[in-house]
Amino acid sequence: MNTLLKEIEVLGVHEKLQLVEDLWDSIDEELLPPMSDALKAELDRRATWADAHPGSGTSLQDIALSLGVRL
């Protein structure tokens, strides 16, 4: 195992979470692929539907349960 991984392994949970956040923030938005017009339109459509039908969606708990994942 390389030195960097050994150093990360000894960090506490909060320190690891902060590291993840710092890494995420360091990713330049320009390197991320742009959102297509079709994807934006689909997300807008779903958000509009969700706003018009509160409580009709599936909860994260139910999705996790159906996948056998424990949250």
Structure notes:
With 71 residues, the chain is mainly α. It folds into 2 domains: 32 residues, no CATH class; 38 residues, no CATH class. The chain contains 4 helices and no strands. The longest helix has 16 residues. The chain is flat.
Describe the global form.
flat
Count of helices? 4
In total, how many beta strands?
0
Content of β-strand: under 5%
Query: What is the first-to-last residue Cα distance?
Result: 30 Å
Task: Let me know the average pLDDT.
Answer: 90
Major sheet, described briefly? none
Secondary structure class reads: mainly alpha
Low-confidence stretches are: none
Q: What would you call the quaternary organization?
A: single chain
User: Taking Cα atoms only, what radius of gyration do you get, to the nearest Å?
Assistant: 19 Å
Structural domains: how many: 2
H/E order of the elements?
Answer: HHHH
Helix content: 55-70%
Labels describing this entry:
single chain; 71 residues; mainly alpha
Short description:
The chain has helices at 3-9, 13-26, 37-52, 60-67. The protein is an all-alpha fold.
